[in-house]
Design brief:
The chain is an alpha/beta fold. Strands 2-1-3-12-11-4-5-10-8-9 form a 10-stranded mixed sheet, with helices on both faces. Strand 1, helix 1 and strand 2 form a beta-alpha-beta unit. It is globular and about 65 Å long. The relative contact order is 0.16. Bound molecules: 3-isopropylmalic acid and magnesium ion. The site of magnesium ion (MG) has 2 residues, from helix 9.
Length: about 375
């Protein structure tokens, strides 16, 4: 059995806590089987933290996050906190975690599982077997660039502005994550920007090109404008293997890519920091879906994206490839058996709620390890 690993669980708001509950059951199951023992702590973020502590994330939670080997994050936000103003947004919790822990590489897979091939709004022949990975830069660009603000001009008008900015280092480090991933996949990268309009896009293209020539001559690199990429993702998504792009384009394109698969409720993500001298890297895992306040508390949310985020955590933070695969197989088998949460319902399948889906996963895990 592996030694204690420090895990920080941050369920957040909306459906976060209810889907996290099902993941905790899987963690308990693994614990009972002595597959892994976590040194686990749970804490508040987002609206839950605003309500209890008056801030979206406390310094103490950030400190715990820095200490943790891995963070399992739920989701934050909801209408309840929308009127509190820009500095009290629940979203600050995830942005602060990314920025302060320097979690710069956001990995967002879009995978179509065979049992769900009909859940997409796209034709099965377009998406069957889809397996692409978006690597989104997540600590730079227009999300954090200065100057930014809203100012009043001499003529009394106002002006709102943000700054898209990338340094060589920022582009290279996310590029390396993408190139390294590509080597374990189909060895192809599409670097996405707007080099036809933006200086920062032109620079992005130059840096990626030089990086490929210098360090990754064996990996195939192509470039694509972001608008064309959005179109190509819908037209023929299987042409892509790894997409690497900036914070804002990655935000947009990953939402688009996730919907190719038919359900936001199925997709996990990982956000990785740089390895330190000991090879240890901070990492945060979260579902792509948000807090879904419209269905929160009704016991109908799909827990699979949160569960698959945990599988990614096992794989990327702890090298537990077999256990990660076991969980992924359990999810796939349960879907193949015909159980569906409301978001992925299809004719001829059985609709179940969050905890029945969780229960089915546990039974499947029992079966797979019997
Ligand atoms: C995401 C979300 C966040 C982002 C929000 C919640 C700040 O949309 O993770 O994609 O824009 O990065
Ligand atoms: Mg987003």
């Amino acid at each position: 059995m592996a030694a204690n690993k420090k895990l920080l669980v941050l369920p957040g708001d909306g459906i976060g806590p209810e889907v996290m509950r099902e993941v905790r059951r899987v963690i308990d199951w693994m614990d009972r089987r002595r597959m892994v023992r976590f040194d686990m702590a749970e804490d508040l973020v987002g609206g839950a933290s605003i309500d209890a502590r008056g801030t979206p994330i406390t310094e103490s939670v950030l400190a715990k996050a820095r200490e943790a080997d891995a963070i399992l994050f739920g989701s934050v936000g909801g209408p309840k906190w929308e009127k509190l103003g820009f500095d009290m947004r629940p979203e600050i919790a995830i942005l602060a975690l990314r920025k302060q822990l320097d979690l710069f590489a956001n990995l967002r897979p879009a995978i179509v599982l065979e049992p769900l091939v009909d859940a997409s709004t796209l034709k099965p022949e377009v998406i069957r077997g889809l397996d692409l990975m978006i690597v989104r830069e997540s600590t730079g660009g227009i999300y954090f660039g200065e100057p930014r603000g809203i100012e009043t001009l001499p003529d009394g008008q106002q002006r709102g502005f943000d700054t898209e900015t990338y340094t060589t280092h920022e582009i290279e480090r996310v590029g390396r994550v993408a190139f390294d991933l590509a080597r374990k996949r189909q060895n192809r990268i599409t670097s996405v920007e707007k080099a036809n309009v933006m200086q920062s896009g032109l620079f992005w293209r130059q840096v990626m090109t030089a990086l490929q020539q210098r360090e990754y001559p064996d990996v195939e690199l192509s470039h694509m404008y972001a608008d064309n990429c959005a179109m190509q993702l819908v037209r023929n998504p299987r042409q892509f293997d790894v997409i690497v792009t900036s914070n804002i384009f990655g935000d947009l394109l990953s939402d688009l890519a996730s919907m190719l698969t038919g359900s936001l409720g199925m997709l996990p993500s990982a956000t990785l920091g740089a390895p330190d001298a000991m090879g240890r890297r901070s990492a945060l895992y979260e579902p792509i879906h948000g807090s879904a306040p419209d269905i929160a508390g009704r016991g109908i949310a799909n827990p699979l994206a949160q569960l698959l985020s945990f599988a990614m955590l096992l794989r990327f933070s702890f090298g537990m490839e077999e256990d990660a695969t076991l969980i992924e197989r359990a999810a796939n088998n349960v879907l193949a058996s015909g159980l569906r949460t409301a978001d992925i319902m299809a004719p001829g399948t059985a609709k179940v709620g969050t905890s029945v889906m969780g229960e089915a996963i546990l039974r499947e895990l029992d079966k797979l390890t019997a």
